[in-house]
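Batch manifest line 370
LIGAND: fe (ii) ion
JOB: complex structure
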Amino acid sequence: MGARNGKSDDQSVIQRILDHVEHKTTDTGEEVWREPVDNYRSDKRLAEERALLRRMPVPFCPSAALPEKGSYVAREAAGVPLLVVRGADGKVRAFRNACRHRGTQVASGAGCAKVFVCPYHAWTYTLEGKLRHVPHEEGFPGLDKSTHGLVPVHVEEKFGLIFISQENSKSVYDPLPTIIRPDQPMYASAERELDVNWKVFLEGFIEGYHIRFTHPESFYPYGYDNLNVIDFYGRSSRITYPFRRIQKLASVPPAKRKVDGLLTYVYHVFPNVIITILSRHTNVIILEPLAVDRTRQINYTLANDAGAEALKEAKRDQDFVGNTGALEDLAVVTSIQKSINSGANDVFTFGKYEGCVVHFHRQLDAALRA
Ligand code: FES
Ligand SMILES: [Fe+2]
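JOB STATUS: finished
ARTIFACT:
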């Protein structure tokens, strides 16, 4: 059975999984893809990919990262420092994070602010980006404060995420469902840098062909060997990893079946964002390409439900995954990166059980050509 296009609700995903279990099948892609290894080591290609990240709408953080008026997140995206903030009116705005005096970044990290005061000479901006105050303003005769606000960039909230389009306000979005509900609280965020190409890292999240061999004692005992359901949403996709205990739903009437704790959804929001929805927690993973062999990984972690008990369970769930499977994946992608210049492979071959990866490369190719 092949991967599907468009929306697939929980019930039909469960049915597709139960059918695969019964027939010992899995969703398969339609073609084998040969990706030139040069595309992982060429600076020119990386520059094109980073330009694409500035040209199209890319998730910057979950909406839950900006829970109240004045909440902000500042970081670089595709090499450009940006500042995203929820205004006094509740609306999210985004700016190039550069003071209009001499360019100092007016905010860093994340937090809650009433105004942004530039750390250099204290030019002060409102949450709406207006330049409100210039110390010793008489030193700037003729300065028009109304044209020296922070420079806005296009921002939209969709699917529980905040998307930024740095260079294009006519953004086209993939037809994704709501991935994160408004009642899911964010409780942690973290950043690290990896000595891995961003695509090598990404590919490991979106195929289940490796589960048995890479994760023999962490994921495989609870999951299946090479059994996945795949859905495409335009350029983006979702791969579903069922747990073996989902088989108990075979005896439950279809309308009463619930996915709770029985599967993992992994969304790939094209091009560089992965969202894993595990039993009790959700991870928004943003991959910022820094160099052909270096990636900044930014993680935002949310509980799947509100409340203290849900939070405790989310953290337990997160520890298990982070201390086992995630380390196994990191070991593999690091191994790939070390061999990438060995001359062994001119292409990497992605087969029919790596359908989401094939979809990604096909879409990336098309987007870079467009
Ligand atoms: S650079 Fe910001 S106040 Fe001078
Ligand atoms: Fe893995």
